[in-house]
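Forum: Protein Structure Q&A
Topic: Joint prediction for protein chains with partners

I've read a bunch of threads here and the consensus seems to be that you should model interacting components together rather than docking separate models afterwards. I'd like to see that in practice. Below is the full input, 808 residues plus whatever partners are listed. Could one of the regulars post the assembled result?
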Amino acid sequence: MDFDKLYAARLYAARVRPYLATALFALHPVESPRVPTMAVDRHWRCYASPAFVAATPLADLAGVWVHEVSHLLRDHHARGDRYAAAHGLTGPAERLRMNIAADCEINDDIYGDGLPWPRDCVQPRHLRLDPGQLMEDYLGQFRLGPYTQGLAWLDCGSGADGRERDWDLGPDGAHGLGDQERDLVRFRVAEGMKGRGAVPAGWQRWADEAFHPPQPWRALLGAAVRAAASSGSGDDYNWGRPSRRGASLPEVVLPGLRRTPPRVCVIVDTSGSVSDAELGSALLEVTAIGRAVGGRRDNVTVMSCDAAARIAHPLCQAEGITLTGGGGTDLRAGFSRAARTSPRPDVVVVLTDGQTPWPSAPPPFRTVVGLFKRTHQHDCDHEGCDSEPPPRWARVVRIG
Amino acid sequence: MPASVLPTAVPTRLDVAAELLALLNDTGTEPRADNQLEALTLAVAADLPVLLWGEPGIGKTAALNQLAESLDLPLTTVIASVHEPTDFSGLPIVGDDPAVQGVPMAPPDWAVRLVRAGRGLLFLDELSTAPPAVQAALLRLVLERRVGALSLPPGVRIVAAANPRSSAADGWELSAPLANRFVHLQWAHDHDVVVRGLGGTWPRASLPRLDPARLPESVAYARRAVCTLLAARPALVHKLPTGESRRGGPWPSPRSWDMALRLIAFGTAAGTGREVLSMLVRGTVGDGPGLELLASLDRLDLPDPETLLADPGSAVLPERGDLRQAVLDGVVEAVRRRPDRSRWDAAWSLLVLALETGAPDLVVVPAATLASLRQDGWEVPTAIERLAGAVALAQRADRAVERVGARR
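Posted by a regular:
Agreed with the consensus. Here's the joint model:
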């Protein structure tokens, strides 16, 4: 095999994609006539077919290097295994689908800028899908059929979809990387990308999330509300009243378990830039949790600021939630109103898009902020539209 | 006629049931490489409190029973969520004259038994469902090893278990101070282990074999690893968890770094693999700082550029491409800092060595940098001709880059 050409292609790839150099050099090339083109396994070996290397121009070969290393960096084999386990998928056809979906995730931002587009590379638009999504998203959206007919040649090996191939050298073969070594290479590459200017957005996102996978906002919001509602109230021990065991132990002072259901107040404040469905689901989530920790229906109230009334009203009516309107025009008015209500709430959950001024001093209750992504950026020139970040005294959960 | 005078009693149905139960309980153990079990025993050996995170019913308690049996330690299980704070902080008992005698805090009976035995495994189950006041009382137990007026003897090891937030319906989060005192291990069931275990053979935990000859060296290594990293990255020393998703997990603080240092020393002395060490370190200071520490360990294991330059003839370069590139970059950087003729020549011979023993493409960039360091009167060494292949490779790549018209 023309190893020199393969190495020259790797060098080329490292020249035009310097942020992937560490990962490219960590790959160990193996000659294998049985591989159709080039393929990787989960131990970071890169199998290449001599015929393919001889027939492919250098620049295109560099593109294949980058493509294969992207599969490994993005951990497609493990993600494929997890997806298969979660959805009960088996068989080579499903693994081919995973390989196609993984290629869709990679290909939209590795070519161009020095790496020529391969003629027959898979792109989301061939499957009539939107670009910029992840392998797991694509997997739910297409089936093998007429659109994928021409894609059956591609085989990036077990590193792309998790199915062992007969050319794989296996975990005990030479020059393989262990789990921990793979993690470290990925970590070093991700760290190298952070704070570097010339990295495409898709890779930036990968670097940010490689070791901090985003958690579903529902779980986070629920945990934040639950924690805020239970610290200092809820089921906890205190010395406020005698323990039920106290009578049998006259000499001993025992704490009693006491339940003070927390009162939760939800302030909805959006300027119409949040999708109704998201706001609705967040509102229902919070009120359901509030009721669960509070134990009574009337422990949860919803207060809407002016702009959000049209969404909050029908929802609260349908769910039978107490809605007190008139939270004022912005959050500060909502906060001061909540502080004046009697009995005062223990927890205030704010659902907002962040385009609002915040109170300058911490309010007399614990605060959780559900922060929506804005669906469209509109210019913020007019008065009263400061989007300052939420203050330090609030627990912030980003939604959507 | 009373049953007691029967000559040979016909076994009752309950006796038969007991016999069947005895047969079912008759399971064997086998030694088996199991990373999470190895990590658990190493942390227990290092006398650090461990917290096992795992879904309900995957055998955390069974693993603990196994561990206690194989370490020959009596196991005391305390289910945290059904106890009151006073069960851990001691029961205040009011005597005749509290102003003079004070109010003694009487320990509960399980603590007394533990102290009397002098050794044992204390297992705190269901930690995440304990109310906040109970968690606060547990802090003292885990940190000071005191229950009421008693202090637990050094032979007592503490292990706790908790259910992750996703599966704990009514759980409280672990408070950051309590989370910081534990080594967090994610406990997952291994399919093969479960199948073999249900077939009658469970894996056996055994304490790591520490090599007495390597103890001082291990301590020095662990200290160097942690200090090198923290000297370069002061921000990592103490970082409270901020994001909503990282609460209740491990985070870096001087205390947890000390724990990580201890674990590295134990792991080195026991010759544990990197996988296990990685689980432990990441479970002590958190994922990000843990990975940084492991990366810094990797760098510590690389040969020192100065050593290589001093004796290029006997140099051995790492096999892996990315590490080899890091070493060569380090060598060129060392020459750039203190350029002189002999070091420059030594660096060239190292590059030739790299070329002869591995892929040529990663020699190109260091060679170009080294060539640019040439000063007047320095002759290009003959060794450079052997780099011709690599230079040709680079030219080939450059030509292709120009053809495609890439912006360099």
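Chain A touches chain B through 64 residues (CB under 8 Å).
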